[in-house]
Design goal:
Radius of gyration: 20 Å
Number of domains: 1
CATH class: Mainly Alpha
Helix content: over 70%
Largest sheet: none
Number of helices: 15
Number of strands: 0
Distance between the termini: 23 Å
CATH architecture: Up-down Bundle
Order of helices and strands: HHHHHHHHHHHHHHH
CATH superfamily: MFS general substrate transporter like domains
Shape: globular
Length: about 400
Amino acid sequence: MRISTPEFVAIMAMLVATVALSMDGMLPALSMIAHDMTPDDSNRAQFVLSSFVVGMAIGTFFMGPISDSFGRKRVIYCGAVLYIFCAVICATTDNFDVLLLARLGQGIGASAPRVVSQALIRDFYQGREMARISSFVMIIFSTVPALAPLMGSIVMLAFDWQAIFGLFILFVAISTIWMAVRIDESVPANMRIPFRLGTISAAVKEVLGHSEIITSIIGLIFAYCILFVAIFLVQPVFDQVYGRGASFPYWFALVAILSASSSFLNSQLVRRLGMRALINAAFQVQVVLCGVMLILWYVDLLQDAVGFAIFVTWIFSLFFMAGMTIGNLTALAMEPVGHIAGTAASVISALATIGSVIFAAILGQFFDGTILIMIFGVAVLAVLGAIVVHRLKRFERPHKA
């Protein structure tokens, strides 16, 4: 690499943050989208988020193999063009179905920087150092979801909710140009894998043939699902349960900024304790916290100002948990298949995203104006995640300092 590690981390964080901005930046607009486009069923507005995630999952299947065959940077360029084109459609349509279709296309475009950034990190780093770099990326990445709802609400106040897509276009243009100018292509022509279905199929079979990778993917499904449930439902809970929709961007920013500490903590602990121990601890702690939340809900202590403070603290724990699990699980899944990092990143991310968004979208449609479904859903997911990732211990290899 010809650039410093801090600059590399910053660029990777911006590429990954395309996804967070595209989701969290829409949160303040959900109630207005529901009012303007789906007045008969406000829960349908959540599909603006889930359709984007589905598109991202679809694109994720292809972006990695294509980057193995044609180079990392070209794929990011193509993804940026598709993303910007669909953002223009989103900003100009008054049809909800067209909006969802364009958001699907935006998700496909956003999958390029998401997947290729993982492959780039794997191209330059490996093992616990890769997990450490991923943690630093997450620290910077966490500032985007912190600021995205606030930025979206400011744009809405100045213009309207459709103008948020202009913000998305500007962000993607800056991150793509920065990457193009400062990062060299990491897969030269003589190292590229021919783009043949048979070759890609063999690579996919190799990825899915590792028990450790499969176990890590299942763990990622539960970790991502908990995060998506929090993102899909946090704004409706603030608005409908606690009547704090106007102040939601500020609370969300506070939670997201504080949650960035998890990635910093992970970067300091992962070399000493290892990824598996940290993942296990994060899921187990969340199981306990969900149990406490269910008890507090049952005795009706989550309704007033004190209950709101407890709820915000619990939301913080969900985002904190994401910083302690997602990067580590991704690093574990990627470790055995560095020679096909692009394809591996695609398969791992696509399966984890598709599985998690299906569960999260279903849970979101059961929202009934209370926080019970949110707490109960996260509790079940945390228990399942704890059970699955406990099996990762059997794959642990001796660490070489």
